[in-house]
Design goal:
Structural class of chain B: mainly alpha
Shape of chain B: elongated
Structural class of chain A: mainly alpha
Order of helices and strands of chain A: HHHEEEHHH
Number of domains of chain A: 1
Helix content of chain A: 55-70%
Largest sheet of chain B: 3 strands, antiparallel
Number of domains of chain B: 1
Strand content of chain B: 5-15%
Strand order of the largest sheet of chain B: 1-2-3
Oligomer: heterodimer
Largest sheet of chain A: 3 strands, antiparallel
Number of helices of chain A: 6
Shape of chain A: elongated
Strand content of chain A: under 5%
Number of helices of chain B: 9
Strand order of the largest sheet of chain A: 1-2-3
Amino acid sequence: MPTPGSSAPTWRPCAVDVRPKGDDKLLLMNPHDLLRKPEARFLILFLLILGVSFTVVALRPVDTAVVAPYTAFIARMSGFVLRLFGEQATVNGCVVSSPRFAVTIYNGCNGLITSLIFISGVLAFPARHPAKLIGVIGGLLAIQLVNLLRIVSLFYIGVFLPQHFNDAHIFIWQSLVILFGISLWILWAHFFALPRERS
Amino acid sequence: MKNAPGVFLRRLPFTLVAAIVIWLLLRPAIDWAVAGLAQTLVRSFEYPRVTRLVVQDHRAQMRRTDLRTDSKVPTVSMTEVTFNTIVLLALYLALPRPFSRRQLEALFMGWCVLILCQSLNLVFHVKTLYALGLGEWSQQHYSDLARNIYGFGRYFTDLPGRFSFPFLIWLGFNWDVIMKMLAVTDEDDKKPDKKGKKAVSS
């Protein structure tokens, strides 16, 4: 114990805020500080919208009323394009077949997943509502166009290079479609979402 | 920085090809890492520890030591689980200065998170099979709640997760770089400070 008159050190509360403030310390922050960071806000909102939208499309009534008819519509469109190229393609439900090859369009092949991810990215990003509307409509059309190209090209890969069908289907075209969606989002953010940030 | 998105988008096809080559070369190691981590996670919560995930021909075989020897072995395609590594690599490599120390650190951290996500996807595949696919055994050992949780986990980490995780990881670990590329922060950087000098970006 310090005796009277001795030079005992005086302890004062530290005035320096020692909480981590670096960009790479997101996980150590309290939730309030975390939500102030734009990247954290975007990621949380993105995951929330994505989670809700994927939960909704997984519900049986939604699947029956929306997803299945939508997938059948994509199959009909693919059949139509293949007939334009001279194929004797017929469509039965979600199966597009010709005497040479047949493809079945499942839930993951209808472009819906990429579209929902793109829409979540657009809605979560800080931008004005008209810009978001342009992004959603334009993005949906562009993704569906690329998806149609994907189905038609996979059909011909199945006809001419059947041994490469799985590789082309799984890691080449899926990667291409995801990267196309991300590229579209970058273009949208650059050309349409910026004005609000600048104002 | 005005044309940075253009430069990024022009680089992307080339980095996609590079990413496919890297992934094809590292595929056995990635399969092994993902299946190993998934097996550790599955075995952490089971008693007795009977699950073994063996990778053969890029398919994870779900072997249980308590299965009969003549029993069929269910498998999961590792290509479908790990192909999104291509997307992550392509996105990272297309950013400015991809081989700088900072970017390589970000890539390493991002890749680790992606491997964890891929492992979780595989875990949900295994647990969904146990909870739903083994007939009466599944009925006796798993509740309806467990079946719903594992089913939802598998559904969410399957297509939505596989497609969105690389984008989220890339964005999360490179937010400043990407926002600078999109020119979101350009205006602030260009504003003169109080002394009339332009701010110098680091």
